[in-house]
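So, could you explain this one?
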Amino acid sequence: MYVLVNEGVKIEEEGKQLVIDCLTGKVIHIEVDSIVIEVNDIGYLVYCANPYRFQESLHQKITVYTYQHVREDILRLYGFLAREEKRLFEKLLQVSGIGPKGALSILAVGEPQMVVQAIEEEDEGFLVKFPGVGKKTARQIILDLKGKLPEFLPSYADDGTAAGGKTANEKQLNQELEEAMEALKALGYMERELKKVAPALQKETLTTDGYIKLALQLMLNG
């Protein structure tokens, strides 16, 4: 059952616990690992896989789908642009050794279809590229989730990558680099500065966040 609380906040009732299902409001601030979305004069801190994807929506009204993580000492919201991303995030949390931070790092590099492709093809090499994911964890992801993601398979099959090797993964990584460059431009860095570090960045396989951090380090070191 769903109820609306303070228009813009959609809450799902799970047993006796109320969980924030989504937020509709304006993105008013972006950090390296999170955004702040304002709903009825309340700013909600939401951790995201790639906050810079929200750069184009800054100060615009959008809907962010949220997962509410509750522990004795923590209450955090994790946000996604699509329910598909949120569902895969929840699936990854079911894997032994994967927490919210690890699940976010996986989604930061791979679109849901890319991650499903790697799992279905037992592509450990792709999975171990994510921060905090070693061979043991990659194997656990495959063991726990292969064949158990039917809701993602139609779109995975339709994207034409099932028989195409890692071409789609490579395209996704190029997109991460492009998003990092756009984020750095938004932070005020000049085109000539970015061109100097671009060759070094292109040699790496990183998340958008990783590219940004490396670029800042390279520019700092001259």
User: Anything to note?
Assistant: Residues 168-220 form one domain.
